[in-house]
Design a protein that fits this description.
Elements lengths: L2 E4 L14 H4 L5 H15 L8 E11 L6 H14 L4 H14 L3 E10 L14 H7 L20 H4 L1 E11 L5 E8 L4 E7 L6 E9 L3 E6 L21 E9 L5 H18 L3 E5 L2 E3 L4 H8 L2 H11 L4 E6 L5 E8 L7 E5 L5 E5 L8 E6 L3 H8 L17 H24 L6 E2 L12 E4 L23 E3 L6 E4 L9 E7 L5 E5 L12 H5 L14 E2 L2 E10 L4 E8 L3 E12 L2 E4 L2 E6 L7 E2 L2 E7 L5 E7 L7 E8 L2
């Protein structure tokens, strides 16, 4: 048996270039792709469900001469570079690769898993896990809760190799050892001894042949694996499992941090549930130390999701969904959860994507898990090749799939908004919500199943008022805008999102910030000293923070707290009742400050007096209206 590298002829067939589609798919974010695909494959091959799957990542620099048959690899890359010298992209790839192979040392990443079945079927000729992983293209036998659908994820390790070379080694559950190397290169031309057409023996004549580009290291005869132990870094495998050696691993000094961040992002749930443990160099990631690692390495969104998992205030929902089995939804409302997204996860805990466009004003985080096998499998059929979104046209029944996805999104949105209506946030940070705040006024409004109540038509179905949200005035017709246009200066965003995931917005009003022909002394009946005069008209006062909520339901009293951005004198607030067709002035009956001092009020105005910048003010007021109301509030005053 001769062991070495073999690059089969294409028999005058297709010539493959360097831009192999399967590899290019994962080049956008090699660490995220590598972490996601490796962990998915290992979880799919879990041996004992009572123990976690363990995956190790170790980087080393090995002598170039320790690579088996490295002279043949050098020859192949030089021939390929010459053949593709007129192709800019291919020439750049091979130039860099030849430099790596001519150096004394080379980067090698070993990935090893434990408590898995290993890669079974290495002795089979077809339809085995070994054939699908090592030799097939676009083939996957995974079913049910297994993650892969296209057989393309196997290319992620090649995308992280600057040589596109990966070695596979396994000790499978049947106690079979096997190894084989694979190089995914472009076709190249070389001279080989010709075979006798009659006897099939090698003649002394040479002829040029074109290769497929894909090469195999192992038993050269029939490109078979070798059934014995193998190592490139002196690691001895004694437990059942699999090792991948990525030769020429991408050079990035921050690779370890990026891998940890990617693992935490994609498999937070699997680690938290004790299904997965990962070692990246000297860093152990498991359920025990997860909190510390999340705080040190994770992005803000992952930190939000971790709060959902750990907080005693998280609300858990479980639902039988569309006849497909159970799904779960965990929701946490909190003023620091400003990403406003829901993690959509497969049953094994792998994140698919982050669902957004649920509410642009509520502050929350959520986790939705496709818990049961049938519902998990249904949505898996719609996953893209990178397993990072759903596309209904990938399903056998596109219209049904669109309906199911819409139903799931509606369930998530309704549950979050229902919970939000019964939760009072401590404070609405006006800076954090600045892209949603209008320049003219601040409107504070309740929501009832995403509908607005028209006060003009005297309709009201609101039974409770606990959460108030900052939105913009409804004084013109609505229009649908793209989220990218939020900051173009022409639109005020209401904070609502329709069932199609579109933002609902209104055109901005070109109202003046100043109010003319208004004498605050005369209006409120406030005594003025001789010589007092107002040399300019009042202007709007913007708040740094703002909060309005129902203070006393029985007495219809509302509590308004705010911090003005600038100081002013003779200040007052204006209050409007909001309806679907516009706003009408409220009739304020009583008002007093936090010390129970009565305040002057008239019609829809409450006199405050002097305001000092960055100081908190509280007003408790009631209005002449028997129903709980949506309101618009603006603050005005004179420059000191």
């Amino acid at each position: 048996m001769k062991i070495g590298w073999n690059f089969p002829s294409n028999d005058n067939g297709c010539v493959n270039g360097v831009s192999e589609a399967g590899i290019e798919t994962f080049r956008g974010d090699v660490f995220k792709s590598l972490a996601k695909e490796i962990c998915q494959n290992s979880l799919d091959a879990r041996l004992d469900d009572n123990k976690p799957v363990r995956i190790e990542f170790y980087l080393s620099n090995i002598d170039i001469q320790d690579i088996p048959d490295f002279e043949r690899l050098q020859e192949v890359f030089i021939l390929s570079k010459k053949y593709w010298e007129d192709n800019k992209k291919a020439n750049a790839f091979y130039k860099k690769a030849v430099e790596i192979l001519m150096s004394k040392k080379i980067r090698l990443l070993r990935i090893s898993d434990f408590n898995t079945t290993g890669i079974t079927g290495s002795r089979e000729k077809k339809s085995s896990n070994w054939i699908d992983l090592v030799k097939s293209s676009g083939v996957s036998n995974k079913t049910g809760t297994a993650g892969g659908s296209y057989g393309i994820g196997k290319n992620a390790p090649f995308a992280s190799s600057e040589l596109r070379i990966v070695y596979y080694r396994t000790l499978d559950k049947d106690n079979i050892r096997a190894y084989q190397g694979v190089a995914k290169l472009a076709s190249f031309e070389e001279e080989r001894l010709d075979k006798d057409n009659i006897w099939g023996s090698l003649s002394k004549k040479k002829k040029k042949i074109m290769t497929q580009g894909i090469g195999f290291y192992g038993n050269i005869e029939n490109n078979l694996p070798v059934f014995e132990d193998f190592s490139l870094d002196n690691f001895k495998r004694t437990e059942i499992g699999t090792d991948l050696y990525i030769l020429g691993f991408v050079k990035d000094d921050d690779w370890k941090n990026e891998m940890i961040k990617s693992v935490l992002s994609s498999y937070l749930l699997s680690i938290y549930n004790g299904d997965l443990e990962i070692i990246i160099e000297n860093i152990l990631i498991n359920k025990t130390n997860l909190e510390d690692l999340v705080q040190e390495y994770a992005d803000d969104l992952t930190k939000d999701y971790y709060q959902v998992l750990c907080s005693p205030n998280t609300v858990h929902k479980e639902k039988e969904f569309a006849g497909l089995g159970n799904i779960t939804l965990d929701i946490l409302i909190g003023k620091d959860l400003n990403k406003r997204k829901v993690l959509m996860a497969r049953g094994n805990g792998m994140k698919i994507f982050d669902k957004n466009r649920i509410s642009s004003t509520m502050q929350f985080a959520g986790i939705c898990i496709l818990k049961d096998r049938k519902v998990d499998e249904y949505f898996r059929s719609m996953e893209t090749q990178q397993h990072d979104k759903w596309e209904p046209n990938r399903h056998d029944n596109k219209k049904e799939a669109e309906k199911i996805i819409k139903e799931l999104y509606k369930f998530i949105k309704d549950e979050i908004k229902d919970l939000g209506r019964n939760t009072i946030l401590d404070e609405m940070d006006a800076v954090g919500a600045s892209e949603y705040l209008p320049d003219e006024v601040i409107e504070v409004k309740t929501k009832e199943q995403n509908k607005k109540e028209s006060l003009l038509n005297k309709t009201s179905s609101v039974s409770s008022l606990k959460k108030i949200e900052v939105i913009t005035p409804n004084k013109e017709g609505t229009q649908i805008i793209d989220e990218a246009n939020l900051n173009n200066g022409n639109i005020n965003v209401e904070g609502e999102i329709n069932d199609n995931g579109d933002l609902v917005a209104r055109k901005k009003h070109n109202k003046s910030n100043k109010q003319t022909d208004f004498n605050v002394y005369e209006y409120f009946g406030i005594p003025s000293n001789e010589g007092d005069s107002l040399l300019e008209n009042p202007s709007k006062i913007e708040p740094l923070s703002f909060r309005l909520f129902l203070y006393d339901k029985n007495n219809k009293e509302y509590k308004l707290s705010f911090v003005p951005k600038r100081s002013s004198c003779n200040s007052y607030i204006k209050i409007y009742l909001m309806g679907e067709q516009g706003s009408i002035p409220a009739s304020v009956s009583t008002a007093y400050d936090s010390k129970k001092n009565k305040m002057s009020c008239k019609n829809n105005n409450i006199y405050i007096g002097d305001l000092i910048a960055n100081q908190k003010y509280t007003i408790i007021y009631s209005i002449d209206n028997d129903e709980l109301c949506s309101m618009e509030v603006s603050i005005h005053g004179y420059n000191k």
